[in-house]
Design brief:
Shape of chain B: globular
Distance between the termini of chain B: 39 Å
Radius of gyration of chain B: 14 Å
Mean pLDDT of chain B: 97
Strand content of chain B: over 45%
Radius of gyration of chain A: 13 Å
Strand content of chain A: over 45%
Low-confidence stretches of chain B: none
Largest sheet of chain B: 7 strands, mixed
Largest sheet of chain A: 7 strands, mixed
Largest interface: A-B, 22 and 22 residues
Number of strands of chain A: 11
Structural class of chain A: mainly beta
Oligomer: heterodimer
Helix content of chain A: under 10%
């Protein structure tokens, strides 16, 4: 199974500042056949189901604010929030869908400083 | 609007069985891969199983293989998870999830989620 490891486990950022969450996979999730990274990011607010933010490592889901961006390739990925808003307080998860069982990172809790 | 409504959860003793259902609406159910993802209380997300559009392909996480069975009824726009030989570690909120792409060849992008249904395994 591919193990997904996120860092940090928790993060406190001031409103308007940027936030960066890292995700590392135990093996590459880059497909040689289509040059796509099989990596997604989700946001889960308290008491709610997760919400898809980013897929193919850097494609933003429809309706997701452009302050959210994803980058990286192979085994190292980053979710960046360019200017933190109060509504961004949540737990963020990365997930690989390169091979089953699809696996999630342990989550990163983002709070306001 | 995509709607996924789970039902069938509850309290069950270790070794017991439950069948979760997910009623889908607002999209062409037969055109999408579907999954179950669970979340133990206060913990992270765990993908459990998925099924392709016509039910001919099914995949499971190792911890539920041989105990859980995913299925679907496209005529009823419904997804199911039959859970047998339940263990305490199966206690979780179970989410019904729709994939991103209509008749997509790539599975696993969890586009739409239900509110979840709680399964508690305890004596």
């Amino acid at each position: 199974d591919i193990v997904m490891t996120q860092s940090p486990d928790s993060l406190a950022v001031s409103l308007g500042e940027g936030a960066t969450i890292s995700c590392r996979s135990s093996q590459s999730v880059l497909s040689s056949s289509n040059s796509k990274n099989y990596l997604a990011w989700y946001q889960q607010k308290l008491g709610q189901p997760p919400k898809l933010l980013i897929y193919w490592a850097s494609s933003r889901e429809s309706g997701v604010p452009d302050r959210f961006s994803g980058s990286g390739s192979g085994t190292d990925f980053t979710l960046t929030i360019s200017s933190l808003q109060a509504e961004d307080v949540a737990v963020y998860y990365c997930q690989q869908y390169y091979s089953t069982p699809y696996t999630f990172g342990q989550g990163t809790r983002l709070e306001i400083k | 609007e995509v709607q996924l409504v789970e039902s069938g959860g509850g309290l069950v003793q270790p070794g017991g069985s439950l069948r979760l259902s997910c009623a889908a609406s607002g999209f062409i159910f037969s055109g999408y891969w579907m999954s179950w993802v669970r979340q133990a209380p206060g913990k992270g997300l765990e993908w459990v199983a998925n099924i392709n559009q016509d039910g001919s392909e099914k995949y499971y996480v190792d911890s539920v293989k041989g105990r859980f069975t995913i299925s679907r009824d496209n005529a009823k726009n419904s997804l199911y998870l039959q859970m047998n030989s339940l263990r305490a570690e199966d206690t979780a909120l179970y989410y019904c999830v729709r994939d991103s792409f209509y008749y997509g060849s790539t599975a696993g992008i969890c586009n739409s989620w239900g509110q979840g249904n709680l399964v508690t395994v305890s004596s």
